[in-house]
């Protein structure tokens, strides 16, 4: 299937003809669309204060019901070529997500923003790097994107490490760019362009 077919969705015409979001498989992981049944697991993983502290928009405590609402936005966004959001699962248990990863797509500019989080119990195993590499490959080769970018708070070097490991380069450092929990934080921007 060509990337033109993927990016030619008309967001105003959701139909059964829309191309379903595929699963992506790596050596250890399966990236699949979230199911509504995942809401309880997402709700549980996102109670972690460290995840909220290091992401720009996740609240703490994570509000009751927020996971279900979030998951229910995914299909329409996929069909409208606005986003490709995946549950990260271990190949040994594809029913229980250990994290999330996604591309927020700007179809006009053929670019996308990469975002992710991994449940704290699974940190440090290389899972985020493995999932991010697979999603960037998908974004370039299947969605036909020209550029993929990401940003993170300067106080979160692990995220920068992930982006460097998948071949992204630093593009900028914005001082006091966002306010998180009452503190102005520097934000670092990374990107990679399809060659
Ligand atoms: C950032 C996050 C996604 C990384 O997930 P992960 O699966 O543990 O990542 P990986 O194991 O693939 O790689 C992490 C790398 O960061 C490194 N790292 C961890 N803590 C670090 C620190 N304080 N300083 C520098 N590097 C650090 C690890 O050593 C590893 O690099 P290495 O393979 O060269 O040793 C995870 O910690 C997380 O979900 N954090 C909270 C949410 C978040 O920050 N999301 C991103 C918002 S932009």
Mean pLDDT: 93
Number of helices: 7
Main sheet record: 8 strands, mixed
Strand order of the largest sheet: 1-2-3-4-5-6-8-7
Gross morphology: globular
Distance between termini? 20 Å
Number of DSSP-assigned strands: 8
Enumerate the distinct ligands.
coenzyme A
Given as residue ranges, the uncertain stretches (5+ residues, pLDDT < 50) are: 8-15
The SSE order reads HEEHHHHEEEHEHEE
Topology:
Blueprint: H1 3-7, E1 24-25, E2 29-32, H2 39-45, H3 49-54, H4 66-71, H5 74-79, E3 83-90, E4 99-106, E5 111-118, H6 127-141, E6 147-153, H7 157-165, E7 169-180, E8 183-193
Parallel strand pairs: 5-6
Antiparallel strand pairs: 1-2, 2-3, 3-4, 4-5, 6-8, 7-8
The structure holds coenzyme A (COA).
Coenzyme A binds at residues 50-51, 54-55, 116-118, 123-129, 152, 156-159, 161-162.
Short description:
This protein has about 200 residues and is of the alpha+beta class. About 30% of the residues lie in helices and about 30% in strands. The chain is built from seven helices and eight strands.
